[in-house]
Input
Amino acid sequence: MTLSKIKCVIFDVDGTIFDSETIWEQTCKQLCKKFNTTLSDEARLQMSGRNAKEIIAFIHKQCPDIDAAAFREQWEEMVFKYNEQHGMKFKKGFLNLMKYLQKTSLRVAIATGSRKSDVVSRFKKHNIDAEKMFEQIITTSQVKKGKPSPQVYKLVLKRLNLKAKNCIVIEDSPNGTKSAVKAGIPTILIPDVFKPDKFALKHAITILKDMDEAKTFLKSMGI
Output
């Protein structure tokens, strides 16, 4: 495999940059108690990386007796408040990888299901300006279909004016991996709470433990 022509690394956020998937899980369970309903881990997996409209529709389908829009709004607000009170930890090796990338000519961007304001606020808790660190921060709210549709990654490519073969993605989830691969972008999978599915196992260019391994991999590929 030759990846020497890579010009940009595109990151997912939840479970990739930030150790936040467990926060989404915990707050979901709290809300389910409040709304007297249940959402399985499989249901949460299916919602991963999707946009607000899709998530509301999915919650309504799974839990038709509750106000799905209110559930989703309160869910995001709970995660936002958690960050405001406690901050969110970076995933192991992320800052080291960014330091390495900043020494190269590589560009960096984000493709996420989270709100841009939430992404910015999470970095701000670490005294980092996300809008200066990343050339583009693209969210699934900017496209009709979120992950696993390739639309969000295709929009990143358009904004960067780059071809898929000149980028590489780092993702943590099956939906995210499928989104990036369908956009034609080589994808590194670093699983978090969601186990790789058959598609991810087949199509990810490599499956790694953390960002430190990603740094070693990229260096070995001449990136």
About this structure: The radius of gyration is 17 Å. The chain has a mean pLDDT of 94. The first strand starts at residue 8 and ends at 11. The chain is about 50% helix and 10% strand.
